[in-house]
Amino acid sequence: MPSSLLWAVDVYGRVYTLSTAGQCWELCKDAHLEFKRLTSVQQCCWGIAGDHQVYLYVHSSDVPIRYQEETYENQRWNPVDRFCEKLLPSDRWQWSDVTGLKHQPLDSFRLPSEHWEWEADWYVDENIDGEPTEKGGWTYAIDFPATYTKDKKWNSCVRRRRWIRYRRYKSRDTWAKIPSQDDGPLPDPFSDISAGGWEITDEPRGRLSLWAVSLQGKMWYREGIHHHNPEGSMWTEVTTPGEVVQISCGPSDLVWAVLWEGQLLVREGISRENPKGSSWVVVDSPSTEVGAIHVAVGINVVWAVTKDRKVWFRRGINSHNPCGTGWIGMVGEMVMVNVGLNDQVWGISCEDRAVYIRQGVTCSELSGKTWRAITVARDDDRSRSGSANSLASGEVRVQSQSSVMNDAESSSETERSQAAQSTSPTHADAMKRRIPKVTSDSFISELVSDKERKPGRDGRDGPTPSIQEDGAPQEQASADQETSVELFPQSSGQQGARDPKWSNVDLEEAQPPLPAAASDTTETSSLSSVATYNLGIEEQYGVDEHPLWAWVSGGGCAVDSHTHLNWFSASTGVSSCVQSMSLSITPAQTAAWRKQIFEQLSERSKREMENFKHYEQAIEQYLHAFINEITVLVPVLNDTKHTFAIYTPERTKQRWPIRLTAATEQEMHDWLALLNLSCCDSRGIHGAPCKQAIWSTTCKGDIYVCEPAPNLEAVPYPLPCDQMFWRQIGGHLRLVESNSLGIVWGIGYDHTAWVYTGGYGGGFSQGLGSSTDNIHTQTDVKSIYIYENQRWNPVTGYSSRGLPTDRYMWSDVSGLQECTKASTKPPSPQWTWVSDWCIDYNTSGGTDREGWQYAADFPAKCKITTTGPWLEVPPIALWDLTILPCSSQSSVEEVSLWGISNKGDVLCRIGVTQQSPAGTSWLHVGTDQPFKSISIGGGYQVWAIARDGSTFYRGSVSAQNPAGDCWYHIPSPPRQKLKQVSVGRTSVYVVDENSNLWYRQGLTPSYPQGSSWEHISNNVRRVSVGPLDQVWIIADKVQGSHSLSCGTVCHRVGVQPMEPKGQSWDYGIGGGWEHITIRGNSQEAPRIVMPVPAENTLEKKGRVAEEGGEGGGRTASISSVLCIKEEELNGNAVSC
């Protein structure tokens, strides 16, 4: 799991971040602003600063934020001027959008804000539907609304071309002020903000819902926030039934808010089409006596804090019932709480102002078990000189405090003033440690009241805090009510040395207890309940003091039960409240009942087994396979059976493996580990795979590796594929790529990139036949799809009532198997659901507003946690990758590695070496459209395929210029859209969307783009071309003795320099295989010298003597001897 950040604001308004992989709070890089509110997500953080303006902090990344602006130039033909800009009055504008309805000249485009910049000038797009156009980029049609083609015909009366220009977001790793909108009502100053909504029905990454609350209690929604526009476009007011003081938005469709009176609002009707929702529902406060002041929501949880600082958990929350069913009181008192990813909870204790994390939060126990303080230092603590006088020459002035009561409590104000006196430095130190909140001007207008005084602490009980309306007059303290308190002795020289800088501080807890006569005095924090405090020097905290926190946000912090955190080892001055907040039970308390339950279960088992003693044993069957004949062991997991398959060469040919079932999943893993170790011992295979290894993955994400034999590519007798031995490596990946230097990368189903660490084992082999180091925890997330099918009839329209011959109303993609939401399970017991079922709007071919494709699929995400020799390469999610193939003796210092992000950006990895296979950073390579496949071959040939199926070649790529210069558009095969490419030393193969395999002809050093495509085979899922131009594929519909096999490893035999296309296919392991890479195998096949018969030798000598020369005779003789007839190895089986 990549590291993520927890954001927090201390009482001085300074912003800190804490990494899940770090051990200290780090001050935000752009620290010149003071903040009072933060809301963070994975890619950015929003905040409200002291000027009540909204700021955005976007993390830096190797992939820029780019937005493509486009406009169309339109022309019409006339007999005089030919094609020109003179149009008919009924025509569209000369410069317009694609529809022709909007006038868009080139000079009308403006940058949205000062945080954007243009990348380059306007240029013409010379591509249409994956095909290159003629020079100039013109496309022709009979009229403007018609269909355009690249060819000019006799009836082409109009033409147009597309102009493109990119703008780039430049304000990264800095706080960027969100500009005020030019039209519409301007929001008044904001007091609270919350971001979320990125998981609303599988929204594209970067799409956010941003909610804000103003000082006047109004609610606003930020429109248009997505990956290409992180700032959004405008603020829209959302009506509410009352004045709102605080709001919280979860990752999905949960939005809760707190009203001025202490009640809570729940937003209903939030969906993909209406992210703002449609209506509000009022929910009562958790306590009937005091109202709520704070709420925090996640995916399936809602937490609240009432005015008496009690923490509450809302049960029964889900996507169908956002209001929940009831409140549960939790242990602990908090100033505020925040819910992050995985419904993890953080809070700030009102006792010591420390940040706490809720431990024990799981999918089955969302409320967690106990609070634990985060006890790490700040980064600036490490550079201190050890002086404790961080507040030297400081002075405190306490103003008279005024409060405004609720209408239900009082209609008049009650004023209270108290002077704090300093009698000794010891007393001053005690006061300094008790300061709960130090604020700048940004905190003057806080709406939520501070903590009530407890009887045990200050000897008085006060009524519930009240919230003062914006604009209420503040009471000014008179001079005789203001008393100066000297915290530290200071010399007169120090007093006059510099002009003190004043800030605001709430000294509520620093005040001594009131006498009994004043115990009924109203206590509340209002807009005038502040005192001034001289900051003195730069450091606000003492050396031995922990920071006092005012706000925490974990919306982008990914922490789950398996995450190892180093947040609790540092020693600070925090007084931990873990014991008082814990709900856990010690093992000693559970020993008695555990023993009792074990005894009861044992007695029950004995009692039930006695009734079956007279039963005869089942009939035993015998089946054997020699260990040295086993070629692969494959786990076959499902909910009911724990099965694994055993393949031998004969079983591989039959496509009919031996299946064995174990009683439990653990027993199956034990058998797999033991058999895998025995098979490796019998073949002399030990340790990590060699650098020349062949890697592959199955459709279930299992990783297999094969040590290539020297005769694997021998001609004319290569090693048969069905005799190759495959062993499993721990981990879970969708694809793996390697080269002969031992650099191996993989991509998971959640598009996370992983790099091979050099270990072996892991997974089920952990502890047996596995390396002890270089094994790490790995997680993966994949989506499970089911399909809802409906048929139209004249009476009810589309409904679930189908014909008897129709497929199931809920089925898999084939329609042959019934799959309902309730009956569909994760792939195996190792997987757990991490999301609810939702509608997929990204189905190929498009959908309508409700997800129907006239047929909707419902994906749900599940997660697996395993171990393997893999380390994550954050932070960019990848769709495809390729590594430069080279020989094992290559002296390449830096290996070229290219990738495609899940958004379609083309990337080049910098700093990849044998010593550092993960590299250092990504270099973005600009493209005009998103890509989906890429491959680099010998001589730094880079080929790529765009999402529209078009092919591109990258020119001028070299070791000195790793990113190249420009893209060349290569025409695709006729009427075919390509989906995958693989480049070898001198060969280029592609697979189209119809599973056809094509070979690029005419590649030469002087013309590396080639000349034409030649069809090789069909039913091909994926192709891999090695550094010696070896060709391996994953084929479908391979005929076995019992049935057809899908996902079979196949090897192209007969590939030679003079015959690069090969001759036939040899079939190996399968089905169920998804990916294979041969790009690490650079072993040259041994040269076979065929023995020449004696009679042929005599014949040759005589013929040479007769012809009077050696040259022609030797050539003819050798060619005739080596021309051996090869037997066809089911050449057409792949084409079945």
List the helices and strands and how they pair.
Elements lengths: L4 E6 L4 E5 L4 E4 L7 E6 L3 E6 L4 E5 L7 E13 L3 E3 L10 E2 L19 E3 L4 E3 L1 E2 L2 E2 L6 E3 L16 E12 L5 E3 L12 E7 L12 E6 L4 E5 L10 E5 L5 E6 L5 E5 L4 E5 L10 E5 L8 E6 L4 E5 L3 E6 L10 E14 L5 E5 L5 E5 L10 E4 L3 E2 L16 E4 L2 E3 L10 E3 L8 H9 L3 E3 L15 H4 L24 E4 L5 H6 L4 E5 L24 E4 L14 E5 L24 H4 L5 H23 L22 E6 L4 E6 L1 H6 L3 E5 L2 H18 L11 E5 L4 E4 L19 E4 L5 E4 L5 E4 L5 E4 L19 E13 L2 E3 L3 E3 L10 E2 L19 E3 L23 E12 L1 E3 L5 E6 L13 E5 L4 E5 L10 E5 L5 E7 L3 E6 L4 E5 L10 E5 L7 E6 L4 E5 L4 E5 L10 E6 L2 E6 L5 E5 L2 E2 L4 E2 L2 E6 ...
Parallel strand pairs: 3-32
Antiparallel strand pairs: 1-2, 1-40, 2-3, 4-5, 5-6, 6-16, 7-8, 7-9, 7-15, 10-15, 11-15, 12-13, 14-15, 17-18, 18-19, 19-20, 21-22, 22-23, 23-24, 25-26, 26-27, 27-28, 28-29, 29-30, 30-31, 33-37, 33-39, 34-35, 36-38, 38-39, 41-42, 42-43, 44-45, 44-75, 45-46, 47-48, 48-49, 49-56, 50-53, 50-55, ...
Helix pairs in contact: 8-9
